[in-house]
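Hi, here's the filled form for the chain we discussed.

Project: internal
Contact: R.S.
Residues: 535
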Amino acid sequence: MADNDSSTAERGAWNSKLGFILAASGSAIGLGNIVFFASNAYQYGGGAFYLPYFIALFVMGIPVMITEFSLGTMTGKSFPLALQKLAGKKGEFVGWWSIASALTITMYYITILGWALSMLVGAFGSLLEPGATAPFEGMTEPTAGPSAVTWFFGMVATWWPMLAVVAIWGVTVLLLWRGTETIEKAVRIFVPMMWLFMIGLVINGLLQPGGVDGVLYLFTPNLDGIADVRVWQGAFAQMFFSLSLGLGTMTAYASYLPKDADNVNNSLLVSFLNCGFEYIAGVAIFALLFVYALNPAGTTLSLSFFAIPQGIAGFPFGVKFFGVFFFLLVVIAGLTSAVSLVEGMASPLIDKLGISRAKALSFVLVPGILGSLLFAVPSIIDTGLTGNGTLGLTLLDLVDNWAFRYSLLTVGLLECLLLGWVLGADKIRAAVNVHTKFKLGPWFDWLIKLVIPAILSFVIFFTLVDDFTSAGGKFAEEGGLYGSGYTMPGYEWLPVFIPIAWLTFTIVVAAVLTSRRTVDAAPHEADAVPDTLAV
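And the returned structure, exactly as it came back:
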């Protein structure tokens, strides 16, 4: 069977709406929901973060998700090809640039999952026990009590995480091997497990002395904090990241839906499931932070790999059980997002090149594994840990800052401008309203055309100002390009090289794939685009 025929047959469709909702919510629910949301909330003053975040959900999150779902159902294509159908070649270029950035993000995301898998194995062994050591200053003597920080840096300074990275990639590809069929089977198990595990952590946290105080802090708004522009900036950025917008995953998943799918209802369900999980995770983690007086230091990595394991080590009973419990939750949540990220890349390759699913997955797998292994390189470049310690962790920090923080927001901005002004937001609204019980009004047009682009432009601008004026991170005192304040002998050039390399790689990939001729394939059931929407 020819490649283009097999790709059409293999593209598939969801067996049920439940399968789609679980898959889309599983994509949105990942490491960021469990730890990044709580870390942001802690950093921005607990309750002061919730009101802006809630506003961001309705002003930006749900409208953009409606748009991305509609791209998939109206065209029956993944992100780049959907944008091409509705906004021409310039739209396709934006889509491929998004996919190239998603590949970069997936590389280090799976490295983090490899570390989580290593911590899961460690939870069965010595992670939550005294005696940890690491080849860094101040960490070479065995600890008197459990030390998740020492154990983590001892682990990342070895080659073992590389095996875990390969294992995570292997599981991800297996879950994608038969497309929607295997994805749906996986999420029917994984997503309910995530909810059960997180509810278990909530119950445990609330039963501990001081746990309720953490929850009260989380839900008590601080009006002085709400007046801080950085709180609003953080809330709107977190919303975009949280819902997996700007990565192409939501459009790819929606392309397997029938043309008459209710995208408003689907968007509301996925958004509320995602944010509901985040709120529950916030309760669980804030209770833990207050019970054990832990400081997450404002970063995702420190919260998930340092603060929470340290709190679990102080439990009066079931330490190993809860340690395994937590890291199994992290790995499962990460896998549901990794599956969607890889599918978001494989699907457009099938659509564009007319190749089989197996070949498309191999095109993602080879550079993906190599990149993930690079982020896991254990070479120690800073024994004093004034920066990130290892070369791999330093690379991850720098690439994450540029690829993750900017690509999603930039794609969202360009997506809204293209669809709002080139295609016309009113045309999208008219197409959506045909198949939904919740009719969108003219307000939707202005959100897509003006309000959301203005918000994203504001966030991007002030994030750039931060990165070019604070050498070691968002709140560093010394000025300079992000990362230039780190200690990394022999690698001082990295802070300048990384953003240039990322931009060059993504632009070249997008240009090459946009210039390729699209292989004709038999039409998907949702492939016919209404005449009013065709470019």
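Let me know if anything looks off before we file it.
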